[in-house]
Amino acid sequence: MIVIQDREVRSLGLKPKDFIDSVRHCFVHKPECQLPPKISLHPKGDDFINTMPCLLPPETNRYGVKIVSRVKGRTPALKSDSMLYDVTTGELLAVIDCDYITTMRTGAVAALAVDTLKKNNVKKIALMGLGNTGRATMMCLSSLLPPPDGKYEVSLLKYKDQAEQFIEHFKNLDNFHFTIANDTKELFENADVIISCITQANGLFIDDVNVFKPGVLVVPVHTRGFQNCDTIFDKVVCDDIGHVKGFKYFNQFKNLTELGDILRGDKPGRQSEEERIIDYNIGLGLHDAYICSKVYDAVKAQPHENIELVHSTQKYII
């Protein structure tokens, strides 16, 4: 067994495109995997501990499980670790710091959903929640979206000095220019795409659903704050139906479709420029396990310290 630290994951030099290609591959090959819904436990308040298992496609002979937690007051609040196993022997291959992988694959999934479900001639992208996930989403969007006529406007929700820091961080992007909105109404107005990377919300972000114009795509990365869209939007897209069955308005979703079905061409995606779509990607352990498997192969090819777990080989241990 090896332990793969964050610095080793980053040293591989993975690009946004690498994460996008990986999550796209996983969506397309999801039917070949065993992927039960994540188990979510809530110790107190908005804190959570999620367990995300996945059996990868048979040819990989690998199984992965990720544990991700959010603890208020911790820095960072979100942390995750993954374990990767060899299915043929049951051997634990690696324990992997999954913070960077989780953040980048989350941004990659959001960007892939935008590219797949957006209408033509997008002008304004609204983005709220400008922490690590928001930055990862912007990185992946910038590598995925084709150059427009002119530039995309990315409107950022003002919060402390995060918007200004975000603009400074991405000031060299050629295809985007940034504006700052003072409230959600200003942010959402005339937006063609709305992306929320806010990790917690008490209630709805906005009550007036008329602010969501025809053709809008809403991507709530952490699923909060847009439940008033659930029953009125023309289509609901998700990464896995089993993961959204517990949603309050699940039985009222219109045209519920998995993103993988669209990417495989099994079901239609956007069917008109007027269609309003909301996309719920809850987060699949499949993405984490697949990327961790690739990371393991890359790191294992280099000299690395092995840690031996010595289990009993006796049939009876009592």
Could you describe the 3D structure shown?
There is one protein chain. This protein is an alpha/beta fold and 318 residues long. It has two domains: 2-102 and 285-300, ornithine cyclodeaminase, domain 1; 110-280, Rossmann fold. Helix content is 29%, strand content 23%. The protein is built from nine helices and 14 strands. An eight-stranded parallel sheet has the order 9-8-7-10-11-14-12-13. It is globular.
Secondary structure elements and pairings:
Blueprint: E1 2-4, H1 6-11, H2 16-29, E2 39-41, E3 48-55, E4 62-70, E5 78-86, E6 92-97, H3 99-117, E7 124-128, H4 132-144, E8 152-157, H5 162-169, E9 176-181, H6 184-188, E10 193-196, E11 217-220, E12 235-238, H7 241-244, E13 257-258, H8 259-264, E14 277-280, H9 285-300
Parallel strand pairs: 1-6, 7-8, 7-10, 8-9, 10-11, 11-14, 12-13, 12-14
Antiparallel strand pairs: 2-3, 3-4, 4-5, 5-6
Alpha-carbon Rg, integer: 20 Å
Q: Indicate the multimeric state.
A: single chain
**N-to-C SSE string, H for helix and E for strand:** EHHEEEEEHEHEHEHEEEHEHEH
Largest sheet: 8 strands, parallel
Number of strands: 14
CATH class call of the largest domain: Alpha Beta
**Helix count?**
9
Q: Return the CATH architecture of the largest domain.
A: 3-Layer(aba) Sandwich
The termini sit apart by 26 Å
Which stretches are low in confidence, meaning pLDDT under 50 for 5 or more residues running? Answer: none
Q: What percent of the residues sit in helical stretches (DSSP H or I)?
A: 25-40%
Beta-strand percent range: 15-25%
User: How would you name the CATH homologous superfamily of the largest domain?
Assistant: NAD(P)-binding Rossmann-like Domain
* CATH third-level topology of the largest domain: Rossmann fold
Count of domains? 2
Structural class: alpha/beta
Q: How are the strands of the biggest sheet laid out side by side?
A: 9-8-7-10-11-14-12-13
Mean pLDDT: 94
Name the overall outline. Answer: globular
Pfam families: OCD_Mu_crystall
Protein name: Ornithine cyclodeaminase
Organism: Hallella faecis
